[in-house]
């Protein structure tokens, strides 16, 4: 929704609702197939052992049917009621999550970088839904979501590291704990310049640069402590800090958004001749 709200176009509530519904259905489809594929391994992890497929509350056939139906409906809604570009992004995210990210978790730590792409695409879908394009603003929004996921997920993974090992997942936190915390710190730092690009390309006022610096500094402090001394407490602090960080950053971004419509209307008035302007104001 933030991607749609930040796009430089007039808001169409029908399109917004269709985008939200279609994106939600695509996410439901991807998550369903993910849990279907990982049910035997989820049973070995404390965080996931109570999922419905693990407890056999529903059958694999029901799950596969639900995943297929929600995927078709989600992409169909985006294609018919939004635009083909947004539908392609939605379909691509389903494929990326289920066919690349999910199996790669058992092969290589690169899965974390692939999974972060999955999380970066939804705001780009919102932008594409509004503009039918992927302008620089869409890529910056996606990059912010991409970078945020490393301190978020790597701190979560720290307290799940023994479960990941038991279930046979190849995660950064198991293969190289020092890299796990170092990557969290690096991407927390990256959030600063990414947020500064937002006012630079005139998506927001420069007040967002100031506000985002304060919020990003809080996340960076947590990431620094996690890097300096990785333990359950610093990981937990960073994880919960990331849960607060993202909605606050996005809310501030929308609060400081420049009034594109007003600016465009001013430019339009400058192009109107004096005679036409008098007729309009009569």
UniProtKB/TrEMBL annotation:
PROSITE patterns: UBIA
Highest rank taxon of the organism: Eukaryota
Listed GO MF terms: protoheme IX farnesyltransferase activity
GO cellular component: mitochondrial membrane
Segments crossing the lipid bilayer: 57-78, 84-102, 109-130, 136-162, 183-201, 207-226, 238-256
Subcellular location: Mitochondrion membrane
Membrane topology: Multi-pass membrane protein
GO biological process, one term: heme A biosynthetic process
Keyword Mitochondrion among UniProt keywords: yes
Xref: CDD domains: PT_UbiA_Cox10
Keywords: Heme biosynthesis, Membrane, Mitochondrion, Transferase, Transit peptide, Transmembrane, Transmembrane helix
Family membership: Belongs to the UbiA prenyltransferase family.
NCBIfam families membership: cyoE_ctaB
Protein name: Protoheme IX farnesyltransferase, mitochondrial
Natural source organism: Rhizophagus irregularis (strain DAOM 181602 / DAOM 197198 / MUCL 43194) (Arbuscular mycorrhizal fungus)
Species lineage: Eukaryota, Fungi, Fungi incertae sedis, Mucoromycota, Glomeromycotina
């Amino acid at each position: 929704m933030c991607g749609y709200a930040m796009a430089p176009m007039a808001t169409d509530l029908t399109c917004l609702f269709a985008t939200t519904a279609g994106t939600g259905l695509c996410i439901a489809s991807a998550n369903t197939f993910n849990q279907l594929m990982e049910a035997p391994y989820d049973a070995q992890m404390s965080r996931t052992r109570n999922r419905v497929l693990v407890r056999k509350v529903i059958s694999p056939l029901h799950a596969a049917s639900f995943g297929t139906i929600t995927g078709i409906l989600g992409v169909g809604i985006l294609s018919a009621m939004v635009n083909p570009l947004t539908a392609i992004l939605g379909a691509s995210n389903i494929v990326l999550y289920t066919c690349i990210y999910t199996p790669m978790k058992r092969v290589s730590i690169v899965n974390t970088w692939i999974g972060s792409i999955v999380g970066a695409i939804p705001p780009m879908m919102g932008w594409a839904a509004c503009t039918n394009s992927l302008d620089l603003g869409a890529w910056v929004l996606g990059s912010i979501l991409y970078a945020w996921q490393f301190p978020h997920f790597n701190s979560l993974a720290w307290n799940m590291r023994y479960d990941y090992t038991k279930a046979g997942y190849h995660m950064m936190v198991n293969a190289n704990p020092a890299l796990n915390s170092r990557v969290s710190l690096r991407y927390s730092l990256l959030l600063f310049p990414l947020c500064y690009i937002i006012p630079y390309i005139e998506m927001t006022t420069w007040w967002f640069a100031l506000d985002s610096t304060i919020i990003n500094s809080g996340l960076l402090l947590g990431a620094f402590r996690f890097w300096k001394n990785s333990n359950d407490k610093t990981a937990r602090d960073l994880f919960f800090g990331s849960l607060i960080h993202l909605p606050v950053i996005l809310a501030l971004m929308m609060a400081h958004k420049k009034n594109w419509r007003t600016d465009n209307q001013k430019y339009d008035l400058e192009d109107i001749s004096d005679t036409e302007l008098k007729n309009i104001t009569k």
